[in-house]
Amino acid sequence: MELLKGKVAVVTGGSRGIGFAIVKKFLENGARVILCGSRQETAERAVEKLKEENSEYPVTGIWPDLSNSSEIEESFKRVKEEFGTIDILVNNAGISARDSIFNYKPEEFQKIMDLNVNSAFYCTKAVVEYMKEQEGGVILNTSSMVSIYGQPSGCGYPTSKFAINGMTKSLARELGKYHIRVNAVAPGVTNTDMVSSLPKEVIQPIIATIPLGRVGEPEDVANAFLYLASDMASYVTGVILSVDGAARS
Ligand code: NAD
To answer: Torsion over CA of 139, 143, 149 and 150, rounded to 10 degrees?
Structure first.
């Protein structure tokens, strides 16, 4: 069943990890997808990889600077002109750092906020007028398990994800009257570069506490995005959907 048949979706951070799995899942379900990468090279490589799997996939890459609201606006305007609409936006690009507060650099904190929070705001702003005009749309944010429990070091990252939950819940209430649904998925520990770059002594104790006994796969998370993007979730908005194997770290 193609749950997203004919829909146009933009996915930030779509070149690898969770974002790449979301792009693939959406394509398998009939969407046309524009994936945003941080650089032309990585965006094009991701598109190539998907086309190798299925040359018919309607997927394109773009690489706006996500710290620049006018560049995002211009870039999404071109998408709208070319594809006629933007039905779904996934704000997924994100970075993390685990420094202790004692040596946390203000620039590092700012960098996390800029990408994890501000870029989601800029991208959302760049699509809401289109969605309002077309009387509907879906905005999805990638939050995190740490947005609920915090984490014992690296306070910038959970802070950014608490902010994303706030944006999700507030915009769900503000935009409901335009039939724009706004939800977030809060993954637990998921098997991507973000996690494989963590030292073993950090990751192993975390896995040991996960009731389902394993880390999540990007596809586990992408399945939740598919549900929330589709009409199956037509009465669901303002939700932070945990996909974490009941992890509580
Ligand atoms: P990843 O490092 O594999 O991918 C991050 C994505 O963000 C990449 O596509 C990258 O191109 C993009 N990105 C990074 N810096 C960028 C920049 N400056 N400009 C534009 N794009 C940039 O990580 P991932 O694990 O797939 O993370 C994706 C999202 O999932 C993030 O928001 C992350 O916070 C969240 N998340 C991940 C986990 C996990 O365990 N992996 C858990 C909870 C939440």
So the answer is: -130
Q: Report the separation in Å between the CA atom of 20 and the middle of ligand 1, taken as the mean of its atom positions.
A: 10
**Could you tell me which of 237, 116, 115, 114 has the C-alpha nearest to residue 181?**
237
CA distances from 3 to 26, 58, 69, 122, 230 (A): 8, 16, 31, 27, 6
pLDDT in tens, 146-194: 999 899 999 999 999 999 999 999 999 999 999 999 999 999 999 998 7
The answer to whether residue 227 is catalytic is no
Percent of the chain with pLDDT over 70: 100
- Geometric angle at alpha carbon 247, from 243 and 249, rounded to 5°: 125
Please pick, among 157, 178, 227, 235, the residue that the annotation labels catalytic: 157
pLDDT of residue 249: 63
For the chain, counts of helices (H) and of strands (E): 10, 7
- Mean pLDDT check: name the lowest of 37-41, 91-95, 188-192: 188-192
